């Protein structure tokens, strides 16, 4: 059974360090925090078990692998409120990087990476066009990206700590 223990200052410090470099050895994290490596390892395992740490990933430069076009799609569907079947199916499309349920006139916000406008058009036509419940889409193509990160701002101690 998972513990309902709150995240303390040491957990936050470990998370900050891992966000900067998830490949840093536990021994180095322990050195930075003046802790025993076994204590750090134990805390990291608990954070993983509790779902605080969801995964470790390699961030690949999209342009270096030929995926230089980023687009955001605003999607409206005929789904009843609260249904997420379309979102779950959209999430299976390889070019899709993010799927969000949103408030407002649209139902979903989707991030897509593609090689070029022609590939984006093919994805929209063939993959999204196959959904009978998609009523409309609006596409916004990204021209420049000034910041893109998965790092969370963990330094604000005034936030309510959960989990």
Q: Can you tell me the CATH topology of the largest domain?
A: Alpha-Beta Plaits
Provide mean pLDDT, rounded: 92
Helical residues, percent: 25-40%
Helix and strand content put the structural class at alpha+beta
Shape: elongated
Number of strands: 4
Q: Approximately how much beta-strand content do the residues carry?
A: 15-25%
* CATH architectural category of the largest domain: 2-Layer Sandwich
Strand order of the largest sheet: 2-3-1-4
| N-to-C SSE string, H for helix and E for strand | HHHEHEEHE
**How many domain regions?**
2
Q: In CATH, what is the homologous superfamily of the largest domain?
A: Lrp/AsnC effector binding domain/regulation of amino acid metabolism (RAM) domain
The rounded Rg comes to 20 Å
Main attributes?
alpha+beta, Arc Repressor Mutant, subunit A, Alpha-Beta Plaits, 2 domains, 4-stranded antiparallel beta sheet, 4 strands
Could you explain the architecture of this structure?
With 163 residues, the chain is α+β, with helices and mostly antiparallel strands. It folds into two domains: 1-59, Winged helix-like DNA-binding domain superfamily/Winged helix DNA-binding domain (Arc Repressor Mutant, subunit A, Orthogonal Bundle); 63-141, Alpha-Beta Plaits (2-Layer Sandwich), CATH 3.30.70. The chain contains five helices and four strands, in the order αααβαββαβ. It is 31% helix and 18% strand.
Structure at a glance:
This protein is α+β, with helices and mostly antiparallel strands and 163 residues long. It contains five helices and four strands, in the order αααβαββαβ.
């Amino acid at each position: 059974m998972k513990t309902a223990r709150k995240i303390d200052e040491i957990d936050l410090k470990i998370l900050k360090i891992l966000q900067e470099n998830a490949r840093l050895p536990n021994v180095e994290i322990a050195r930075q925090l003046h802790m025993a490596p076994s204590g750090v390892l134990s805390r990291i395992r608990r954070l993983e078990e509790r779902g605080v740490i969801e995964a470790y990933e390699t961030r690949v430069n999209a342009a270096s692998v030929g995926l230089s076009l980023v687009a955001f799609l605003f999607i409206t569907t005929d789904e009843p409120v609260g249904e997420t079947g379309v979102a779950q199916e959209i999430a299976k499309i390889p070019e899709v990087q993010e799927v969000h349920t949103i408030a407002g006139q649209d139902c979903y916000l989707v991030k897509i990476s593609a090689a070029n406008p022609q590939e984006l058009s093919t994805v929209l036509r063939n993959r999204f066009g196959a959904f009978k419940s998609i009523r409309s889409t609006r596409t916004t193509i990204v021209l420049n990206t000034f910041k893109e990160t998965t790092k969370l701002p963990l330094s604000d101690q005034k936030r309510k700590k959960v989990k």
